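Exercise 7. Predict the joint structure of the components listed below.
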Amino acid sequence: MTATLPVYSKKDFQTDQEVRWCPGCGDYAILSAVQSVFPELGIPREKFVVVSGIGCSSRFPYYMNTFGFHTIHGRAPAVATGLKVARPDLEVWIATGDGDALSIGGNHTIHMLRRNVGLKVLLFNNRIYGLTKGQYSPTSEMGKRAKSTPYGSVDRPFNVLSLALGAEATFVARSVDVFQPHLKATLKHAAAHRGTAFVEILQNCNIFNDRAWEHLTEKEVRDDQTIGLEHGQPLVFGKNRDKGIRMNGLDLEVVPLGNGISEKDLIVHDAGHPNPAYAFLLSRMDGRPGFPTPLGVLRAVDAPVYEDGMSEQLRQIIAKKGPGQLDQLLHAGDTWEVR
Amino acid sequence: MTATLPVYSKKDFQTDQEVRWCPGCGDYAILSAVQSVFPELGIPREKFVVVSGIGCSSRFPYYMNTFGFHTIHGRAPAVATGLKVARPDLEVWIATGDGDALSIGGNHTIHMLRRNVGLKVLLFNNRIYGLTKGQYSPTSEMGKRAKSTPYGSVDRPFNVLSLALGAEATFVARSVDVFQPHLKATLKHAAAHRGTAFVEILQNCNIFNDRAWEHLTEKEVRDDQTIGLEHGQPLVFGKNRDKGIRMNGLDLEVVPLGNGISEKDLIVHDAGHPNPAYAFLLSRMDGRPGFPTPLGVLRAVDAPVYEDGMSEQLRQIIAKKGPGQLDQLLHAGDTWEVR
Amino acid sequence: MATTEAPVRKREILEQAVIRFCGDSGDGMQITGSQFTNTAALFGNDLATFPDFPAEIRAPAGTLPGVSGFQVNFSSSDIYTPGDVVDVLIAMNPAALKMNIADLRPNGILIVNTDNFKEVDLKKAQIKVSPLEDHSLDGYRLFAVELTKLTRMALQELGLDAKSMDRCKNFFALGMCYWLYNRTMDATYKWLDDKFKGKPVLAEANKRAMRAGYAYCDATEAFQTSYEIPPAKLSPGVYRNMSGNTALALGFVAASQQAKLPLFLGSYPITPASDILHELSMFKEFGVVTFQAEDEIAAVTSAIGAAYGGSLALTTTSGPGMALKTEAIGLAIATELPLVICDIQRGGPSTGLPTKTEQADLLQALFGRNSEAPVPVLAASTPGDCFWVAVEACRIAVKYMVPVIVLSDGYLANGAEPWRIPTVDQLPKFPVTFRTEPEGFMPYARDPQTLARPWAVPGTAGLEHRIGGLEKQDVTGNVNYEPLNHEKMVRLRAAKVEAIVQDVPDLVPAGDPDGDLLLVGWGSTYGAITAALRAQREKGARIGHVHLRHLNPLPANMGEVMKRYKRVVVPEMNLGQLVWVLRAKYLVEAQGLNKVQGKPFMQHEIEAKIEEVLGEIR
Amino acid sequence: MATTEAPVRKREILEQAVIRFCGDSGDGMQITGSQFTNTAALFGNDLATFPDFPAEIRAPAGTLPGVSGFQVNFSSSDIYTPGDVVDVLIAMNPAALKMNIADLRPNGILIVNTDNFKEVDLKKAQIKVSPLEDHSLDGYRLFAVELTKLTRMALQELGLDAKSMDRCKNFFALGMCYWLYNRTMDATYKWLDDKFKGKPVLAEANKRAMRAGYAYCDATEAFQTSYEIPPAKLSPGVYRNMSGNTALALGFVAASQQAKLPLFLGSYPITPASDILHELSMFKEFGVVTFQAEDEIAAVTSAIGAAYGGSLALTTTSGPGMALKTEAIGLAIATELPLVICDIQRGGPSTGLPTKTEQADLLQALFGRNSEAPVPVLAASTPGDCFWVAVEACRIAVKYMVPVIVLSDGYLANGAEPWRIPTVDQLPKFPVTFRTEPEGFMPYARDPQTLARPWAVPGTAGLEHRIGGLEKQDVTGNVNYEPLNHEKMVRLRAAKVEAIVQDVPDLVPAGDPDGDLLLVGWGSTYGAITAALRAQREKGARIGHVHLRHLNPLPANMGEVMKRYKRVVVPEMNLGQLVWVLRAKYLVEAQGLNKVQGKPFMQHEIEAKIEEVLGEIR
Ligand SMILES: Cc1ncc(C[n+]2csc(CCOP(=O)(O)OP(=O)(O)O)c2C)c(N)n1
Ligand SMILES: Cc1ncc(C[n+]2csc(CCOP(=O)(O)OP(=O)(O)O)c2C)c(N)n1
Ligand code: SF4
Ligand code: SF4
Ligand SMILES: [Mg+2]
Ligand SMILES: [Mg+2]
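Solution:
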């Protein structure tokens, strides 16, 4: 397949458009990671389409030298669904934000996941509306003081991964703008998935919500505050890899390793677990005292892919009935002739 | 509080409008249950408001002798949110359908749940669009042949309860149109909840999707195919109450009671479990071979209630600053006088 | 009732007749009417139908809101409307009688199922004294028939339960009508065999009921006369009976074949548009993809995605759904992608009267988007015309790279008429070629004649480019906020839509090419206006009629044509929307004739207006 | 630079001056401009401002798309626009210079920060040869100042890093302008103290930079002349500087106090409307509830819910959001609930030009809903007028039980002018009484004068009733599909909106009460038209001007007023929307003057049109 494929480099995926994000914005890192990963996927460049909604993050397509469609606020999943169903041969990626995908676009997001359309979704979660200059978003923490909530918000936030899992997601992962190797590896996993690959990327908006993820990403704390999930590996974390996670009744618990507790007692990560309740359980570690925030692929399972089902139905019916004949169709049912 | 409250009967909640559902429709039973429960809640009739979207189910308000608002398709949660925030003194109930709440209205539904607005939601799930005469809905099973899918649908359905839990629901329950006592008890639980009480009601549309729930509700099978959840009780089911559910590793398993397995080994239902992952796990029993479908209250936990937060903020600020003075407001900032 | 020789009775030849079946929603009136229509069509009559049923929800049996009706006008000459007055009314219950009797002409035939006129039935219909007894029906030829009882008797050997037997009584009534108009029952036999393929006993039951109804007329002396309505002299060709929604569906399939593009429909169900989705979902052998979206916004945006990918893309809806699509239509305008949006208008505002017809979305179609966002707008005038409008809309969309709005309405959607089936050769061909050449490719370069930009679909090597809803630089398509570029682009988009006028044929008025009065119509008023025009011209009026298929851009000679008449009247099922456009654009003192009742115009209503205006001139 | 006696230089008294600050988005030009404006306002000048910044996203520093500008026109006499040409241009970098130089008047003062004219800066601005060297600026009075360097020097003792010091250079420029126009720095001092409450060193740094700029002018002989612009003779009263969005927010709070109802805002952020949400969210002590909804549909429907519950309900948005709200507005129309919908128009179609101004949503406001769904539409003409329009919209909404659309635009939203603060007594009072009496209660009974139905909020014993979007029976409000009832209700809803004309004052033209030409305007064109009218009348033209606050219904004498002039010209920032309405309604040959560039009209553009039309008459 790649026999005649040009050898791409990162450069091939860069456009001549000035990148119009604020200096220091986490979006740059994500752009760079995607531009690094695309050349490695063995796919002709013209097959890539990046679809986005509206937001800082949704400017993404302009900087990717692929086909790109900067649509309207919240609707990228629906536009991309139409495109993918019509053109299953294309590699359709979505770039979206926490406002775009989860506020105005929440419904399309959950329906895309439910249908398992073959789309890769990069959700840039900066916990703020960047483009409109700093209102709180559905992922902002309660009490957030922002432009529209000078006295603090009273909204409980979504847990992005829980929501996706509740909507029947088949692939759910999380990475961070500044963790480049992890991010690239995660993107590659997503690229390989059939069905909707949903990736939450924790992203810093240094203008309107600076340091939103610092408590996870700072060098000193990151190993204690996050856990990198790897399929088939036990859930170990900590700067000294001295903590682990195991089941305790209906819930998880964090245990120190040693003192009779070894990796054997821990949960071995199974991204392919048929029951999404497992991944859901992992997603609930976020923000729980003592628990790390999970990074990596929480869930990756096979399930019927929407556009496959659509195409297959067409194929079967054409196989059975033969390709439609317009003349016959027009004459279907009772007809009579007037001379 | 009820000192001066009139003693209501079911009749007090009936209107003079002809009920325009098909003969045999499950909606009648739901109407009857609600009209039976409302008089028992100790709330003045004029405090009730029933808000709905569009659909057969959404005709509900016309038949309730309370305040009622038959809004537009999918928007009942948003209308009700505005109403409840503006008027926390009212008891606002939503009547909606699987299409209304989960298809066009999916976004408002998840945001209402996330915010935990003090609304009671009755989702009539008949797995079909009744009012528009029989298209498949987001809860229809895959392969559904309906008006718009003569060759069978290729959509994976939502699990209604999983979706709600993924959206941070604080109260999630399920009942069935034809299980009247169970339905009434469930409605009372919902009425008592603070925050969004989300009740899925399995409902039969005898015209366009007859017997959709028969596999659960038929007398012979219901005890084996469903499990009635009760807080503090072990998860036992079966015609002879001879089966139970326990944890096995990361997942649930169904076990026969006896032969050394007793109720002690089973999960004791905890609707108040702080981790929604437990209720999520229960919700995933639906349709799993050998597992019963859970009925009753899966989850009921306390969490900040949206309109409380809103009102509290107003109260605090007025307490601090005193009630606003229009004259002062108009003169705020730099002013100068021209004589 | 022994079988005897039928008594010899009169047989009268008529030019035309109007039958209306009415009863409870559960009485199968729509089926009965369709069967009669079909038989009349196969016989060669010209015809027009008007199904009229309650809002989607089922009302309680026997009540006024539960009444469902189906009217058919069939004729040996050209006809244009379902008829203003009814010659034969079949009323299955008191509620139906109450709601419909006013439309029966004096001395008209009234067949009533007396079995349904018990105390309880009258009460459901909010009637105190039975109309069968209070002489209120004296002016009609009343045939009081125990339809239920007679049907049961006819079916007693089949071993069906009472409910199943009673479901057949509409076929008893149908049989009576077949007798009355001397029709064969063959087509209905065939239909029943098809419909009850798995349940032959039900097919048989309905057949027996129908035969019993026929025999009842034959045997008893109920009717003294039967009628004959000879076939119409339609232009030669092969015909079928066609409703507006089916015609749209077929038109889109035809267009996709002629454009050589796969058809993609993104839709969300809504009355009265859902049937287009239902129909198209059956045509998978034509490669038609139908996507039932989560809402109207996803419906239209998925179609935009498919259009971007190179499909012939389509979305169908009615008023409230149209309102939801407007933001996305703006995106299609800005990205200059081809897209067809069908609005099957219904009564409003808001949810309004979902099953009733109206023409009140015209201004929404023309102006209902933020900023300057013009699109071509087409309207179909008869059920069969929906086919041709569908084809034309697609042709314009792909030729000009532009979203096109098609307006139909509830009356066209469900109404039917005989439709001459075109041969495939008679269809316009417009095979689409995508841009493939990278050399010199500019996403917003334009064809000088059509002002269309190139359609450059993803997957084409060397054409990688970005589009979106932000303002673009002329030619390059890059995001651009420069003042003069913006003005240029706003005017270019408008000019492109205006340029379509080159494809719009000049108007040629029906009737007098000049004179006292011009009727300007659009959409489903076509039939009533045409019939009124004929009748009034026969009385000597010097009047003409133009019916607009293209509502934007308007035909080049629109203004000139209006000047040829002393008065211009615009009949519309709204408060005056097209008339507003004509006045604004041509400063012509056009006046409206407006009816907003969820029902089509009657011929006489238009005639009355014509007479009024002509009276003023004299 | 030792402190010496300032050399004695000329001081000139001017009537008016226009300054424009421009630089990179990161250069703080909006703050600089606002400070100058504020100082001028406090001094008593009349003024008008025009902030013009890039689309929301930050462009790379130093590039053309990153340029941000703020223009202020301040004067000792009445002024109406920010000015067509600029007297003093401050350009912080080459990109800003390139984008703005065309507007500087010949021989105008040009202050340039030469520290930003290095090779790399020029390249970012896509400039080959430095304009400082190629004589292209010869026609201006160029002051090339090492602003960055001088600022750093002034701050060196404070121990700040280079970046922080460089952030103060806009205050150096501001200081220069204060010297140039002889202004005190007091107000800005105060503002800095407030702004940097926790960081006094930054307050101090900016003050020093400002003083340094002032001293630079004082000490060097850079400028030979400084200018004085005496206070304007505004009508007596207390004034503040007011932008359109703030005025709307204050207007709504005022209306809620006057109606004695709590205010509820349901909104979803969108440029340029978001600031109304931001402002109102600060006024919780007035019981204002602001609900940031998940989208525009939830924003408007939550407001409908609140209105139903008895709040004064409001939703705010811009074009694309407006498009999304249209279905729900239909619901408010059908349920006849009071609601105010603000559309702060921006450039389109689709996402368009989010930070630029336009007036192209008028037809959407009037017609952008399914079916016959008329609503009153109001438009504000100046930033301060937004306050009054907000109050008036609320008054109409609750008096007539109707949703009301308010149109503003990006130019009004962000522009500012001195605003005379009304006393509370000067505000209309319209306390609302809900229906409470069960006896005889009918949800759709109407007040004979206003045609309003009663507002019967939940919680009122005995008034339990149901409303919704289906057609209703007159008086009872029960669901009803009867043909004549529908027509009656459609006409009643229209009549109710028409009835508002009783509250619309007759038009009194500015300028000549009759004559050769009438200018008809609406919205933010007020200033430019007014200025043009004055100038042309001084030249002897016989012309008038009416500016429409009420776009639906139009004032009763609209048609009559137009007839008093030979010609009617309608300047609009669209392709001709109001002109379309006037032509349709009054069959008057009004012509449009249209500009769709994301920018307000210049006075001279309107004058040119006036001259052209008057030339044709002569
Ligand atoms: C219909 C519509 N409503 C509102 C907006 C304004 N708007 C643009 S982007 C945005 C939110 C962006 O937030 P997010 O998706 O988190 O993206 P970010 O800028 O943070 O990357 C909003 C509200 C719009 N463009 N269109
Ligand atoms: C904006 C809009 N789109 C579509 C419709 C048509 N419509 C009415 S109800 C309905 C679906 C009803 O399904 P559900 O919510 O499951 O209710 P049910 O009738 O099954 O109780 C649809 C598609 C509408 N009324 N408004
Ligand atoms: S506003 Fe925030 S998210 Fe947007 S470009 Fe700037 S830093 Fe990035
Ligand atoms: S269509 Fe189905 S859901 Fe609707 S009223 Fe009839 S039986 Fe009930
Ligand atoms: Mg964001
Ligand atoms: Mg349903």
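Discussion. Chain B has a mean pLDDT of 96.
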